[in-house]
Amino acid sequence: MTRNACWYLVERGDARTPHDVFSGLQQQWRDRLGEDHEHALMAAHCLAWTLMAMGRYTESRPLNQDTLDRRRQVLGEDHLDTLRSAHHLAIDVRMLGEVQAARDLGQDTLDRCRQVLGDDHFFTLRSANNLAIDLRMLGEVQAARDLDQDTLDRRRRVLGEDHPDTLASASNLAADLRALREMQAARDLDQDTLDRRRRVLGEDHPDTLNSAHNLSIDLHALGKEADGL
After folding, report:
1. Residue 15 CA to its chain's centroid (Å)
2. Could you give phi then psi for residue 185, rounded to 5 degrees?
3. For 142-229, which CATH class?
4. Where are the domains of the chain?
5. Phi and psi at residue 173, in whole multiples of 5°?
């Protein structure tokens, strides 16, 4: 219940409130129950999550690393909570510039998710989304496109067209298309994603603003191509 509340607030763009809550809970549960207790580890995981949402990756990385190490020891490599920690650590590593290390951890996490949870599980699809970003950043754009297309197709079927995760996959696929110079296809997908995000998330949500920015890049590129530039 507590983790779900954290997830909801972070997804809605409010990381400060759960950060303050879990900062106190982590200290309290660690002191009372021990650092390896499931409640203490959950609080540490959620605290790191809020730090990531605020862009404080140098702070979240050591917390995610410690939580992952403890969960591997206590719960095992393939437990869902362990996989969650690995997923978040891979994001930290990528955001701090170690993209190859992020890709390696992301690939391992996705492989384990597929084996343990199945291809269509909510968290497997999040892991696939994460890995595709690493692939694109490393220049493996076709591989990223293939993975993003598969993830988008699965999310549309499992979650629906307007789910925020589905829209994240659509936005990522559009980025792949843009990198491959398929500008009209990128423009069409970005326009659809923007329209849906405006309706679902509102005009001022960070994801909506990101979609508007991406669409402007597409339109600019198409304008240059039309002018023969």
Report:
1. 15
2. -65, -40
3. mainly alpha
4. 40-51+60-138, 142-229
5. -65, -40
Summarize the confidence of residues 32-49 as an average pLDDT.
86
What is the DSSP code (8-state) at residue 138?
A: T
Per-residue pLDDT tens for 170-197? Answer: 999 999 999 999 999 999 999 999 999 9
Helix, strand, or coil (residue 215): helix
- CATH topology match: 40-51+60-138 vs 142-229: yes
CB 67 within 8 A of CB 28: no
Token pair in block for residue 46? 């959620």
| Tens of pLDDT, residues 147-168 | 999 999 999 999 999 999 999 9
- Report helix, strand and coil shares of the chain as percent, to nearest 5: 80, 0, 20
* CATH architecture, domain 40-51+60-138: Alpha Horseshoe (1.25)
Question: What letters, b where the CB count within 10 A reaches 16 and e where it falls short, cover 153-172?
Answer: ebbeeebeeebbbbbbbbbb
pTM recorded for the entire structure: 0.84
